[in-house]
Amino acid sequence: MPSPAAADAAIPYGTLPPASPPATRKPLSLPRLADMHARGEKIAMLTAYDATFAAVADAAGVECLLVGDSLGMVCQGLPSTVGVTLETMRYHTESVFRGLHRVQGTAWLIADLPFASYQESREQALRSAAVLMQAGAHMVKLEGGGWTTETVRFLVERGIPVCAHLGLTPQTVHALGGYRVQGRGDQAAAQLKQQAHALQDAGAAMLVLEMVPAALAAELTAELTHCATIGIGAGRGTAGQVLVLHDMLGLGSGRKPRFVRNFMEGASSNLDALRRYVAAVKSGEYPAPEHSFS
Ligand code: KIV
């Protein structure tokens, strides 16, 4: 057993503890998340792209970590998520997994299937999902409704937990005409609801709702008893919330999206900011009406 000093010397950049403290909570799993959903306990999710922040988020009590393809913007400096490759997603998923593993992390790890890695066929989706699962993901996320339903069913039947994603789907930003609120108006709302129900029936255990009116998200959340909705710009009525890590740490440059709150304000450290985020999601204090769309 190396002395603490020797162990310190072995880690030149000191970002992760050399020995793991015992886990203070049980590992998150699909049944535990379903139980939280059934009990109405809010689920706190954040994006993570590297080992250090994965460990910090886990220590802060974040239940789900999403290796989002938003890494294209925040880590790679790309103009959208369209340029993110499966290999890049694999690299970051492995990094996050290692960060969790080294500190006996307990968070549920979700990885995004990037643009063009699942659209071709269900078989292509399975091959791409396998790459991310073998990198450490517990669940994969894919964007869109309608045509994705059979892909979700195919993956779920083969033992791959799936999170769906409706509303603003950034991989199709060019087809949508920009980063706009989705599901406004009776027809669009009805279509979104129909797609969400079909995804639940196909076995999706989670559904990210991005930039949709708060009332629509709350209605859907009440209707989807077997699929936990996770909102981002979808109001406080969803089963959980997600934000991009860099945004909630106030690191974004340019115009801040309406739904983002800077949790570094008043926080003493990154860990403290993440703890405040978890507490605000759990209590329903975040998101407030000013973070939501009607
Ligand atoms: O890529 C991502 O980070 C996401 C979240 C914004 C939900 O999909």
Provide a brief overview of the structure.
This protein is of the alpha/beta class and 294 residues long. The chain has helices spanning 4-9, 30-39, 51-60, 71-74, 86-102, 122-134, 148-157, 173-176, 186-201, 214-223, 245-248, 270-283, and strands spanning 43-47, 64-67, 108-112, 139-143, 162-167, 206-210, 228-232, 240-243. Strands 1-2-3-4-5-6-7-8 form an eight-stranded parallel barrel, surrounded by eight helices.
Describe this structure in words.
The protein has 294 residues and is of the alpha/beta class. It is 40% helix and 13% strand. It is built from twelve helices and eight strands. The protein has helices spanning 4-9, 30-39, 51-60, 71-74, 86-102, 122-134, 148-157, 173-176, 186-201, 214-223, 245-248, 270-283, and strands at residues 43-47, 64-67, 108-112, 139-143, 162-167, 206-210, 228-232, 240-243. The protein has an eight-stranded parallel beta barrel, surrounded by eight helices. Helix 10 (214-223) links the parallel strand 6 and strand 7. Helix 3 packs across helix 5, helix 3 (51-60) packs across helix 12 (270-283) and helix 7 runs parallel beside helix 9. It is globular. It binds 3-methyl-2-oxobutanoic acid (KIV). Residues 47, 66, 68-70, 112, 208, 210, 232, 242, 244 line the site of 3-methyl-2-oxobutanoic acid (KIV).
Number of helices: 12
Helix fraction bin: 40-55%
Shape: globular
Decide which structural class fits the backbone.
alpha/beta
Topology:
Layout: H1 4-9, H2 30-39, E1 43-47, H3 51-60, E2 64-67, H4 71-74, H5 86-102, E3 108-112, H6 122-134, E4 139-143, H7 148-157, E5 162-167, H8 173-176, H9 186-201, E6 206-210, H10 214-223, E7 228-232, E8 240-243, H11 245-248, H12 270-283
Parallel strand pairs: 1-2, 1-8, 2-3, 3-4, 4-5, 5-6, 6-7, 7-8
This protein binds 3-methyl-2-oxobutanoic acid (KIV).
The site of 3-methyl-2-oxobutanoic acid has 11 residues, from strand 6.
